[in-house]
Each structure stands twice: as structure tokens, then as C-alpha cells.
Amino acid sequence: MAGAASDEEDEGGMDAFMDRFRGPERCEGAFNQDNWEKEFDQVPMFMKKAPSEIDPKQNPDLACLQSLIFDEDETPEEQAKTYKNEGNDYFKEKDYKKAILSYTEGLKKKCSDVELNTVLHTNRAAAQFHLGNYRSALNDAITARKLMPNHLKAIIRGALCHLELRHFSESIVWCEAGMKIDPKEKKLLETRAKADRLKRTEERDFRKTKLQEKREQSQKEALLQAIKDRNIKLSVASSEDETETFSGFAEMSLDGLSSESTIGAKVHLEEDGSLTWPVLFLYPEHGQSDFISAFREESRFIDHLIVMFEELPPWDSERKYTPNKLELYYEDEERREIYQIDTKTTLLQALQHQRYFVKAGTPTFLVLVKQSPFSKNYFLGKKVHRLN
């Protein structure tokens, strides 16, 4: 019986002992069962990923480990090599940003080992290259090559950077320098061939672009000459309230023809030597308009009006816009005067009127109904030059 009582006492004592860990009185520093994974990851030995910057106050254990790795008693060469190895580890993990930081720290040691500094610059160039920072990578490759002119990896990296930056000639030069060291280096051979191909393509495209620009310039000059020969005057908006006019060829500017309409049409010279213009008709009584993208200069207005009003538009509720009842005008904005044009005249004849100026490359005309109440009111207070 005594033995049984002793066993029960032992079991009760063990239960009480275990209850101390299950209850609120846990051991100091013990993990929380609800958050143990996050707390576990804070232990330096079990960290999945080290922080980029270490604060000794926030993480003294990790700072202590780092001090063991980077011993202050080490020479600059030893410290630079340690940072190089650390950067290489990050590079293998494809963590190029941290690799760059490590290589940079190694360079900050300013050690006297030329080869080590060359490797740090070359490796940092590789990390920058993978991040798409081609200019920074090229700068490192140039520096590495200055330290060791025959360092093949630096030359390869520089050639690749020049290629990505579309410096094809420079890439070829770097490749040829590297091929003097190793004529069979595969990466240099591939880069040299690609740079040469892209350079030829770029030169060909440049020649085509220049030829096209020359052709377009020639066409514009021929167009301008055709307008000058017809004594057509251009007007270009020089400010919100003023217009500048060009009547003499020496003063005429291609700017007067460069503004395309909202539909995208503009004046052009046909192969037979005639001009075709975009023409805008305005109907002020109804706030409507018609746009003809290709109005040949020898065509008469009446011919277009007949086609345009073959079917009366829906906005003409009074059915009065018939070709034989329509009158055509243009407005001289400079003098604030209105001139009537015979609908049986051609576009060229209208453009040759003494006070007609083509604005923004698009001739514009007003269309009104003859003797309509609106027309009479529209002309009140305005000087109108009517046909005899």
C-alpha cells in the first residue's frame, strides 16, 4: 500500500510539474504556441532570410554572428574577399540587389589587390546586368578593364552591355579585343555576330528613313511650288487672335499645309499635276457641317452640292436646302468681310479670289439659303461683297 501511495504521489508531482508549462507561467523566452514559426525565424541559426541591414539593438545575436564573420582584425584584402564570397552566394540565389550591396562593401575596403578589385567590379557588373541596369554594369566593366585590360569576363560583360544599349559598333570593338585573348570564346563570337547584324539593320533603316524624309521634303516643296504658281494664299494661325498670311513664294511656309483636319485629310499634288484639297462646308443656320476629304481643284461647287443634297438632310425640316436655292460665301477674318462665290465656279477659281486665304490647309465655305430670314439676319452689320 505504501508503494502504491508513493507511485500516486510521483504521478501527481509530474502532472503538477507539466502544468507549469501548460499554464500562463511559461519559461522565460519560451515560444508562443500560436506564433512559434514567426518567433523561430528570428533565431539567427534558423533564419530563412537574413535582413539587409542589421541593427545591433534590435537583433544583437545576429550582429554578434556578423562580427565573427567580419573580424575587425582582418586585413582589407581579407574583408573584401569575404564580401566577394558573400556576394557570390547572393548571386547564385539570384538575389542580385544584395549581391550588389556585398560587392560594393568589398570595394569600399579599398584593398591593394588589383585582381580582387577587378573581380568585384566584374561581378557587380554581372549583377547590375541581370537587373537591367546596363549603364551601371557598363561602368563597372570599364573600370574592371582599366584595372586589368585582359580580364576576359569584364570584356564579355562590357560587350553585352554595349549590345543591350544598342551601341553596336562599341560592342564589336569589345568583342574583337576579347577575341584577341581567346579567339574561340563562344559568347564573344555570338555577341560579335549579333552586334554586326543589328548594326547593318540599323544602318539600312537609317538610310531608308533619310531617303523617305528627302522624298517627302521634295514632295512638299513641289506642292508648295504648285500653290505658289496658282497664286493661292496661305494663312497660318500665329496667335489666338491673329493670323499671318503668306502670298509670295519666298515667304510661304510649309507650316501652312502641315495641319491635318480632324479626319486626317490634307492637300496633295496628284500625279497629273492638279491639286486636291480637303474642304469644309458650314451651315450656320443649323450648326451643321459637311467635310469633303478630296475636292479636286477643277471641280465645281454645284456638282458637289447636287450630290450632297440629293437626299435632304434630316436637320432640314423645312426642305429648303436644294442646290438651286443655295448660296456660297467665304469670310475674310482679317477685314471681317464676307464674299459671295458663284456655285458654278471651280474650287481653284474660289481659292484664287483676291481676299481668300487658306487657313490650316483646309478651305472653308459658308452655305446659306438664298433670301431666307436667317441669311438676312446673318448679314446684318457685316460688309458683304455679292456677285453682280
Automatic annotation (TrEMBL):
One of its GO terms (cellular component) is nucleus. One of its GO terms (molecular function) is Hsp70 protein binding. Keywords: Repeat, TPR repeat. InterPro entries: Csn1/TTC4_wheel, TPR-like_helical_dom_sf, TPR_rpt. TPR repeats lie at residues 80-113. The keyword Disulfide bond does not apply. SUPFAM superfamilies: TPR-like. PROSITE patterns: TPR. One of its GO terms (biological process) is protein folding. Residues 272-373 form the Cns1/TTC4 wheel domain. Gene3D superfamilies: Tetratricopeptide repeat domain (1.25.40.10). Belongs to the TTC4 family. This is Cns1/TTC4 wheel domain-containing protein. The lineage of its organism: Eukaryota, Metazoa, Chordata, Craniata, Vertebrata. The gene is ttc4.
